Structures are given as structure tokens and as C-alpha cells.
Amino acid sequence: MVAPLRIGLAGVGTVGAAVMRLIESQRALLKARTGRGIEVVAVCARKARKKRDVDISRVRFLADPLALATDRGIDVFVELMGGEGDPARAAVAAALAAGRPVVTANKALIARHGTALAATAETNGVALNFEAAVGGAIPIVKTLREGMAGSSYARVYGILNGTCNYILTRMQEEGLSFADCLKDAQRLGYAEANPAFDVDGHDTAQKLAILASIAFGTRVNPDAVYVEGISSIAPQDLDAAAQLGYRIKLLGVAVRTAKGIEQRVHPTMVPRESAIAQVMGVTNAVTIDAEGIERITLVGPGAGGAATAAAVVADIGDIARGLRVAPFGRPTAKLAASRKAPMQRHEGGYYIRLAAVDRPGTFAAIARHLAAQGISLESIVQHRAGERAHGGEDPRSPAAPAPVILITYATTEDAVRRALQAIQRQGVVAGRPQLIRIERD
Ligand code: HSE
After folding, report:
1. 330 C-alpha vs ligand 1 centroid, how far in Å?
2. What pLDDT is attached to residue 371?
């Protein structure tokens, strides 16, 4: 009989406790599927005694993650502490160097040090599995790396942050403020300890960097991602988008272009009928455009203890089965450097919202500056000053400038920015224009 696989678990927070419960409740199923028992034999946490949703009194307790990582009594080191630096980095590196396979849910660690850690795993002939780092329970890492290993990817894009999608959904559906929605996301345990990390797009960028590396064979590098968050999105943008047949999502997009792999995170208008536009609330989704096959979209829970634990336990199951693949889908020596795509050369359609000064000649000036940059318009919506985009009078600002919404055909970011600068210089708009990129199918 094969001896059970002994797990050392570092971090017994929401995810760690959920992993322990899942291993316990699915004991027989996991054994039937992997051919081997799986047991948590030791844990490491900041505090031994703390109110937890799981009983850790029957397993060994270590205070030092590094000691657990290299402990001879474990077969697999599971890192659920989080954070891109030490102790997570040092503990994972030590476990791999000691020939222990590692499972981690730590997106920050993998985004920042993934290539180096994968090289250590390779040298020592052990697995480094991180399915839970991206998209919670959605098996997107395995899908790109193994399930579609025969496909050439053109574009991978998705909703990779539950907090942002939850906020945008509630703002759109209930007309709530950004701040109230964020508070609820924190209360429900979706947001990071520092929610700026979610709403400013950095969480999405780390996850995108990991997916881009697997899809396009580049060294994982979060600094190669252009990042913009959702805090500038106003209820009137969500209204206007709906009116024009779009929804606004925070997307991470990795796309092959003639100039290289472009990686970007920003609020994005997506056609209302697209699969990604249907994804609401804390749910995540990733769409894969691969050559020669119809588009595939995977949708599922992207945050929370149970969703993340499902992916962690599946990764442990792979090790129990004796599976080991190159963490980024090819040997690290074959991964190419990744460079930050210059966004001024980005090509696509744009949503522009201007607060136009209500006087003759304003529209002519706007049109002239757009034409001067060769920008062609697909839609124009102008409301009377003081009128809301979705109809009705705005009681708060009867004398406000008139909102003008423009949707452009494909153009370059450089052209749009030049046109907007010229329009602002001419004094025909108030405040800063709002600019949202459009991602088409
Ligand atoms: N804060 C993250 C989110 C948790 O909102 O998606 C999962 O990485």
C-alpha cells in the first residue's frame, strides 16, 4: 500500500482552514481519484492558539515556516501565507531546494519570483503548482498549460478580480456609490487586506502576468503590465455604457500583436452580448482566443476560502498522482523576456466622456480636433446640460456642462490623447475627459 502524502501547511487563515476541511471531508474521494491518502500532518501559523474554523490541535505546530518547508516529516509544502517577499519566498525556495514539491495560492509570489522558483523546482525535479493563484476555483492555469497545450493563443483576457467585478456590478445594478460597494466587498471577505490593491488593478495585473507567461511563453513579469484601476469609473459611465450596448468590466488582457505581447489591465467596455459581459458579482471569467478553435470562456468563483481551497487541493492531488509539469508550461530557459507594451501604440475603439461647455461652436471644435487626428466616430450621445445620461433631470447640478459621450472606431491611443489635449486646450470642456478602452470580440 502506498503511504499517505504528508502535507505541511503554512498559513491557517480563511484559505488554509478551508483546505484542511476539504482534505478531511473529501478524504475517500481524493484517495479514490489519486490512488493515495492525503493528510495534513503539520501546520505553521503566526499564532498557535486562535479561534479558527478548523481544529489544528491534532497536527504538529511549527512557528517557523522555513522549518516547516524543510521538515523531513512532510512530503509537500503548501504555502498559504501570501505576500511576494519573505517568509513566503524564502520558505517556498527552501522547500523546492530540499526536494519538496510546493503548492501555493500566492499570486504575488508567483508573479514576482515565479521564473526563479520554477527554475529551482526544475533543478530539483519537483512540482511547483499554483492553480489557486489565478481565478480561484477556475482551472485556468491547467487549461492553458495542459488542457490546450496543442493550441496557439492569440489573446487571453478576463475578469480576474472578484472585488472589482462585485463593485462594478452593484454600482451598475443598484446605483450604489463606489465606497459603499467596496465596504461590502471587504465585509464579505473578497478584498485584499489593502483593498487599493484590488481597485487599482494590481491584483489583476499579477494574475494576468502569470497567465500571459503560460500562454505566450514569456518570463512572468508584473512590471510588464500596463495598469489602470476602476476608481475613476462614475455611475454615469456605467449608465452610458448600458445605453450604448456595452458593460464596463475591469479586464486583464494579454494579446499577441505585431509589436509583441501586450499585457494590460484597465476598465474596459465590452459588448453587452459577449460572454464576459454576462459575468456579474464576485465571479471571475477568462476567455481564450486560440487559433483554429472557437472562443472558450471559463466562468467561476474567483475569491473566497472554498473556491481557492478547491484549486489548492486539486494541485495537491496532482502531486499525489505523481504528476509534474513545467510550472509555466515549458522549461524556464526557453521562456522569453517580456517587455511593457507602449500603450500610446495601443489600437482599438474608445469611449470618451466630455463635460462640454454649453455654447455655440463647442461641438464643432470637438469634431475638428478628432478629425485632425483621423479619428472616426461610431456613436455620439449628447445630453442637455443638467440631464442625466439615463434620462431625467439631475436635481443636483442644473447648470452643469452638457455631457457628451463619443464612441470611436478603431484608432490609436496616441491619436485619442492628442485630440483630447487639443480639445482641453481650447477650453470647450470642463474637467478631465473620461477615457475607457473598448475590447471587441
Ligand atoms: N482580492 C481578490 C479578488 C481575491 O477580489 O479577486 C482573490 O485573489
Report:
1. 27
2. 96
Domain of residue 355 covers: 343-438
pTM of the full predicted structure? 0.93
Pocket of ligand 1 contains residue 133 by CB under 6 Å: no
Nearest-CA residue for atom 4 of ligand 1 = 303
What's the pLDDT tens digit per position in 37-94? 999 999 999 887 888 888 888 899 999 999 999 999 999 999 999 999 999 999 999 9
Q: How many residues does the chain have?
A: 441
Number of domains the chain is built from? 3
Contacts of 196 (CB under 8 A, 6+ apart): none
* Burial classification of residue 151, based on how many CB atoms lie within 10 Å of its CB (0-12 exposed, 13-18 middle, 19 or more buried): middle
In the set 142, 207, 259, 340, the catalytic residue is 207
438 bridge partner residues: 269, 349
- For residue 207, indicate whether it is catalytic: yes
For 91-110, how does the pLDDT look when each residue is reduced to its tens digit (9 = 90+)? 999 999 999 999 999 999 99
| 303 Cβ inside 6 Å of ligand 1 | yes
Please name the residues in contact with 311: beta carbons below 8 A apart, sequence gap of 6 or more: 105, 131, 132, 136, 137, 139
Closest ligand 1 atom number to CA of residue 133:
8
Last residue of a domain, one of 110, 133, 156: 133
* Ligand 1 centroid, distance to 131 Cα (angstroms): 14
Looking at residue 400, its pLDDT comes to 67
Ligand 1: centre distance to CA 135 (Å): 8
Express each pLDDT in 272-304 by its tens digit: 999 999 999 999 999 999 999 999 999 999 988
Kindly state whether residues 144 and 107 are assigned to the same domain: no
Together in a domain, 271 and 360: no
Q: How many CB atoms lie within 10 A of CB 377?
A: 15
Residue whose grid cell is 450604448: 244
User: What's 260's domain CATH number?
Assistant: 3.30.360.10
- Check if the beta carbon of residue 143 is closer than 8 Å to that of residue 119: no
Is the CB of 190 within 6 Å of ligand 1? yes
Examine the fold and report which residue of 133, 159, 183 is the final residue of a domain before the chain moves on.
133
CB of 163 closer than 6 angstroms to any ligand 1 atom = yes
Residue 429 lies in a domain: yes
Lowest mean pLDDT segment, chosen from 25-29, 47-51, 332-336, 365-369: 47-51
